[in-house]
Amino acid sequence: MEILLDIWEIVSYIWEETGQIGKAQMQDVLLGSYSARVDNSGRVKIPEKFREIIERKYGKELFVTSLYDESVQIYPLTVWLGMTGLTSEGAVHLRPDVRKFLLRVNRNGSQIEIDSKGRILIGQALREKAGLQESVEVVGLSNHLEVWNKEILDGKIETTPLSEADFENIARIQPRGQSE
């Protein structure tokens, strides 16, 4: 469901700003899923299609963390800073709930750069918590990636399928600036 919400937010924003969704805008969205391998050093080669978009739109600097222990999230650094930096409300990092969140994600998170071979290092603690072994699935979620153990991902999808209520809730989401 998170994937659909992220995509809908991007589509709504593009529609609001341009009145249409062009092919060029959709080329900058991280969509789909690709298999990859974790090497002996804990490096994962980012699938080429994802890497091209990330480097073209955001650059090579990334933040790797885990919001939930079941997978690893890879954010372009600019996206991560936009999510966690100063806002018009001021220093939100001083709020207790935000501080708790930042402590969790920064504890094992790290700022890294895509190397010349398109690989990134995922720290051992993150790999262990997410059960990442040799074969992984890299999933595009609009503006960031998630890396999953294939069996855990397949199990999660099977045990928590989208329900009719989920689809009804998704259908009720209104594009920004439009009323019902």
Number of domains: 1
Q: What is the mean pLDDT?
A: 84
Cα Rg: 17 Å
Low-confidence stretches: 18-24
Top-tier CATH class: Alpha Beta
List the total number of helices.
8
**Annotated CATH topology:** Chemotaxis protein chec
Describe this structure in words.
With 180 residues, the protein is an alpha+beta fold. The chain has a single domain, classed as Transcriptional regulator MraZ domain (Chemotaxis protein chec, 3-Layer(aba) Sandwich), CATH 3.40.1550.20. 42% of the residues lie in helices and 23% in strands. The strands form two sheets. Strands 1-7-8-4-3-5 form a six-stranded antiparallel β-sheet. Strands 2-6 form a two-stranded antiparallel ribbon. The two termini are 22 Å apart. 19% of the residues are buried.
Please describe the topology of this protein.
Elements: H1 2-18, H2 23-26, E1 30-37, E2 43-45, H3 48-57, E3 61-65, E4 72-76, H4 77-84, H5 96-107, E5 110-113, E6 119-121, H6 124-130, E7 135-142, E8 145-149, H7 150-159, H8 164-171
Antiparallel strand pairs: 1-7, 2-6, 3-4, 3-5, 4-8, 7-8
State the main characteristics.
Chemotaxis protein chec; alpha+beta; six-stranded antiparallel sheet; 180 residues
What is this entry, summarized?
This protein is of the alpha+beta class and 180 residues long. 42% of the residues lie in helices and 23% in strands. It is globular, with a radius of gyration of 17 Å.
